[in-house]
Design brief:
By secondary structure, this protein is of the alpha/beta class. The chain is built from nine helices and eight strands.
Amino acid sequence: MHPDQPDKTAAPGSHDDFGRIDTWDQARADNWAKALDLRAAGDDQVRLRESILELAAVRTGETVVEIGCGTGPLLPALAQAIGPAGRVIGVEPQPVLADIAHARIVERGLADRVRILRERGAATSIAEGSADLCLAQTVLCHLPAPDREATLQHMMHIVRRGGRVMSADQDAETWVIDHPDRALTRRLVTFYAEQRFADGWTGRRLRGWFVRAGLLGVQSRAMIVVDTSAESYQFKIAVDRARTAMRAGWISEAECAGWVAALEAEAAAGRFFSSLNFYIAIGRVP
């Protein structure tokens, strides 16, 4: 297929690794674990987690569930917020990520108040109405509509009346990257939004989804995550997006090589810039 005429019939999320975690081998899981750790270490990602905690208003003694906890960067802060009388449950279906999250909880001496379940968000074994807060971070964006709706409904199911449901997700079409080739960069942003997520507009749609699900008093917050280092997650993932777009036929091999080379040159000159908008929504269970 000509790269100027990409396959528009491909379903959204056709090139989303997190939409098919059941197919990961050990190497792919290890690579993503390293990438997630790199992302979590970014200064703005730290501030994003702080914003999540502030808006969540977690209190001592509460029960908090995180759906899709990954390697667990948010779990220690949740454990500190709920104190010894509370409990935190991390739900993660990918075995390698779940094992890493569990090992880190044990290393931090938090196993008495945090446990990890290897389950899917739409079908956890957590009892109905047993949680005060259920949250997900960059999870709903990877789920096709039926799975997303089932997951959100289950999040509401396990939270008590008056408890909170929360999600933080990126909006892929807000990806901004400084690059000399504007036309090709626009094509890559379109590929990213259309193919790397089940719904690349998840961030902007969160509030509407929460309202339609019946959650009350829905609040929203936005945050821009910026990276300027060639060692950052956003630099490495930008290169990955270009190469994935090439393999998918959205750009040619020559276009990919040229785009990556130009990006590397910008980074070497200290001019790398990339940002992405994240949106948080929180509502109460009726």
